[in-house]
Amino acid sequence: xxxxxxxxxxxxxxxxxxxxxxxxxxxxxxxxxxxxxxxxxxxxxxxxxxxxxxxxxxxxxxxxxxxxxxxxxxxxxxxxxxxxxxxxxxxxxxxxxxxxxxxxxxxxxxxxxxxxxxxxxxxxxxxxxxxxxxxxxxxxxxxxxxxxxxxxxxxxxxxxxxxxxxxxxxxxxxxxxxxxxxxxxxxxxxxxxxxxxxxxxxxxxxxxxxxxxxxxxxxxxxxxxxxxxxxxxxxxxxxxxxxxxxxxxxxxxxxxxxxxxxxxxxxxxxxxxxxxxxxxxxxxxxxxxxxxxxxxxxxxxxxxxxxxxxxxxxxxxxxxxxxxxxxxxxxxxxxxx
Length: 337
Ligand code: UFG
Description:
Helix content is 41%, strand content 16%.
């Protein structure tokens, strides 16, 4: 298939482009480069061994997206382009609604105008908030706690409405747990601007000596070692899940909302000790107070993805740490260093 990938130069988007090409699909990238580097595209072309057409535009530019979809005769869209920092979303909610919700509306209108009727949407386990029990399956209550989460849930619900109104429209909402790691080549990976928000990039920067120590947010959570538990998922496994979802939409007559995780939770201290063992680097840390908005423990029940998509995560925490560290060592200042 020919697939438009919005946010194709971003962290998960770039890895997904490579998996799509590896499975014989054609890729067209759209990216505003608001939160990604132009240098990603030539690296992707190198790794993919083919040219990847790339259009610099904001998905809210409906006319431009319509032109790109028509020009390339795309069969489907994978929609990554969005803002993703929870804390920032609390300070700038309207930016999040404009980018993430209005951006999705523009994209859906452009798809309708060009007859493109398959969409894969990046959602998040954040839609579950603090779950009543773990592992979390797709029937768990939805309770968003911040504007970022709300923007994801609104788009999920919008997709349901669009599918009810248009019998040919199909979507897959993919609820990611915690994507980490990098491509094993060490040439693409997560490149946060400024101070990272997430654990793995911070662990890598501490190991590299860019920061003197990691702050562990809370040692008094109701978990076995007192630190927060998450379902870390290798970004290459996550990218593969998008290819499975694309093929599902092409071959099955239905839409899907599904968790993507390993089904295994790891605590902050477990991640640190795995990283130290696998990478042979110390990660000095200090336990500090809990971070606002955090929850104790979240991990996925990924059985629906296994049943419906035939997808399961294959790469373990060792591989996640090893690949994140390789990316960090080979690109200490990210793409633009
Ligand atoms: N943590 C630390 N120190 C840090 C950063 C994080 O101890 O400096 C801890 C957190 O408290 C948490 C764990 O590491 O226990 C993971 O934190 P991340 O920030 O890496 O990930 P979150 O689970 O908080 O957030 C992720 C995504 C969000 C998404 C959310 C859904 O980054 O986009 O999952 O729950 F909304």
